[in-house]
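User: What would this chain look like folded?
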Amino acid sequence: GVRVRAMAVRVSSEGEKIGEIALTDIGPMQSIAIAGGADGALIVWDLSPTFNGVLLSSTDTITPIALASQRRPSLAWNGSEFLVAGVLDGTLHWQMVNASGVVRTPLSRFPVITALYPAIDVEPWEGGFLLTWSAAAELFTSFVSADGVLEDGPAFVGAMAADYSRNFGVAGNAIVYPRTTGDPVRDITRVFVRTIEREEDKPRRRAVR
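Assistant: Here's the prediction, encoded as structure tokens.
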């Protein structure tokens, strides 16, 4: 397979490259993801034989992080911890990483995934995390608490256009995704927005056109 090296590049506020850092030796890896934290960033990837994450401090100190061997990682920082999500043994699995690089697996149930390699997105929301994924042209979301416990969901967001089932975006509690209109004459795909709200400890979904 392809063997590569994970690199990090710092860019100034003026858009100039001011430094390049090698994070790993050459090896098999892919699906790199990054999230900024309290004093730097957590960078993760899959298919690594040794470690599959590093904390990169603001002073370029590199701390290797050993995580579960997850596929298609996505991560976010909620102000106190990172949540790193990926696919593991047919389930959507996640681990928590604090600012010092300490990893813990929360005592929580994990949703079963019907797709082999779903697209996953993690966003900080309401002190916890909004965890969204696509599986077999269907979009789902869940709310994970700051302790890493699955509190709400999985909730069905909507059916997606089959040819674009990996293409969706999340910002805060807003989810955008493509969907066919059902026109029997013209094959038209439109982009829909749906917001996720929580009221009295129960999720409420509201479609926005």
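The two ends are 44 Å apart (CA to CA). If you want, I can go into more detail on any region.
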